[in-house]
Amino acid sequence: WQETLAEGAVILRRRAREDAEALYQQIMAIAEQNPFAHRITPGGHRMSVAMTNCGDFCWSVDSRGYQYQQQDNLNGRKWPAMPPLFRTLAQQAASEAGFPGFNPDACLLNRYEPGAKLTLHQDKDEKDLRQPIVSVSLGLPAVFQFGGFERGDSTQRVLLEHGDIVVWGGPSRLRYHGILPLKPGVHPLVGAWRYNLTFRRAF
Ligand code: MD5
Ligand code: FE
Asked: Of the ligands numbered here, which is closest to the C-alpha atom of 167?
C-alpha cells in the first residue's frame, strides 16, 4: 500500500518483498566484484555506512569531495552493470508514485551495521533535480529522519522496513534527511544488516 509523506515523497510499503531474495542475491554478486567499503569524508571521518555501486556512474566521496564518476576511486575498476531487475523495479516504483519515465544511470548501495547512521544531509549532486530518487530497503528496520529544506527544520521519523520502497521526488527531492543509528538484530534473509539501494539519474 501507498502513503504520501509530503508532496512528492511516496512510500510503497512492502513493494519489494517478492523480489527481496533476488535483489539480495544481486547485491551479493555486486559486492563480490566491488566490495562494500567505508569511505573517508572530506572532513576526515570514516563513514559508518559502507558503500558500493552499480550502473554507469557511481557516487563517491574522498578527500577531494563528493562526485559522480565512472571509475571506482578505490580500485580503478568500472562498476558492475545495473541488473535488469534493479532497473525495472526502480522504474515501476517511480511510475507508481507519479514519476513516469525515470531511467536511473546510477545505483548507490548502502550497507548499515548496528550503530551505523547517516547524518542529516541533502542529495544534490545530480544534474537534474527534477528526477526523483528511488530507495529500496532490505533487512533490518531503520528509523528514517525526514526534514525540511533547512538543516535546522524539525524532522518526522519514519520506520523503513524490509521491502519498503520510497520515491523521493518533486519538492521532496531536496529535503534534509538521515538515518538514526541502526539497532542490532538479525533479519532472516539478510542477517545483521540493513541494505538500501538508491537509484538515481546522475547526468
Ligand atoms: C538510505 N540513503 O536509507 C537513504 C535512502 C543516501 C541516503 O540518504 O544519500 O544515500 S535515499 C533517501 C532520500 C533521498 C533523496 C531525498 C530524500 C531522501 N528526502 O527528500 O528525504 O540509505
Ligand atoms: Fe541521501
From this structure: 1
CA-nearest residue for atom 9, ligand 1, is 123
Query: How far, in Å, from the CA of 189 to the mean position of ligand 2?
Result: 25
End-to-end CA distance of the chain: 31
Q: Which of 1, 5, 24, 3 shows the shortest CA–CA distance to 14? A: 1
Residue with cell 547512521: 117
Task: Provide the ipTM.
Answer: 0.99
Residue 51 Cβ inside 6 Å of ligand 1? The answer reads no
pTM for this prediction: 0.97
- Using CA atoms of 141, 79, 50, 128 in order, give the dihedral in degrees to the nearest 10: -70
Task: Note whether 164 and 72 are within 8 A (CB).
Answer: no
pLDDT in tens, 84-110: 999 999 999 999 999 999 999 999 999
- Give the ligand 1 atom nearest the CA of 174: 20
Local structure of residue 160 (DSSP, 8 states): E
